[in-house]
Amino acid sequence: MRLTPTLRQAVVPRHRTLAWIGLGQMGFNMASNLLTKTFDADSPSTESAFVVHDAVPAAVERFLDEHAEAASRGRVRGAEGGAEEIPHYASTIFTMLPSTPQVKSLYYTSLLPSLSQIHNSASPPTQPTTTTFIDCTTLDVPFSRALSSDLRKIQGVDFLDAPVSGGVVGAKAGTLAFMVGAAGGEESFGRVRGMLERMGGRVVLCGGAGSGLAAKIVNNLVLAQHMLAVSEGMLLGKRLGLPPAVLASVINTSTGKCWSSEINNPCPGALPSAVPPPPADRDYAGGFAAKLMNKDIHLALDAARAASEPVRLEGGELAARMYERVVGEGEGEKDFGVLFRVLEREGAEHLERELL
Q: What are the backbone angles phi and psi of residue 74, rounded to the nearest 5°?
């Protein structure tokens, strides 16, 4: 096992140290792009450092192995003392976690107590004490707004919600779309925009606290219904004898074209020339997990019910029921296009029952 340098050995000033918490499929690739492009932009006199942490130690080890040269020079390291150490050594901290419970536990159990020590100390440190958090998790809007308010009550602390769209493919390629909400408005956004652009192709300030999340859950509500429509259409075409690649080419040059048909078509064999092949041609491995899509749809439904003028989302409710079935059938870890396989399997089972 790698012997990770401790944070207490760090020589890079706090204001030039970035931290990343959460090294799942998305976070790992996003952090890799941020690290690589930040180090590439450094000059010898302004070298940056990078600190990573994950609840699963093996994820940190894998990240350090991926960036072995930087790790050997101490420029990237794990937080051996846990997440609570990180605010003491990094002034810009990114978080990318599964959902609300994990974010709540991390911030209120580990990060906020450390911040109070740093920013409210009777003997402030000699380094600048500004701390900026950028949370890329997709979670519920009211909680994120409350967290932003609690953090910003501490002098010198800022918080932005910056969920992403583009999936694992976009995270690897550095082409993600960031939807940003910032209580500090343009000033806060301006401080982090350059860093976000190192991981994405499009970075949009959507408004105040929680606005990025609001845009994200609306986008995923639409995406879920697109995937349902494409899955049903591709399955019907297959039953009518249309080769998947032919049908996909028709849809993708016609008015039915969308991301779910053109980039992440859920029918195996629909995109034979795609590089890399879509999840459907890899047993739905990788991509955006169906269980996370199920979570996001329910976030949208909850937001619709809690809105000042409640909105009835009938299409969203149908999509929620469909993805609950996908997760219930044990396919939750697969890419959300696995809905096609569930529909195909259920159709075959229904036909078999009718013939008995």
A: 75, 10
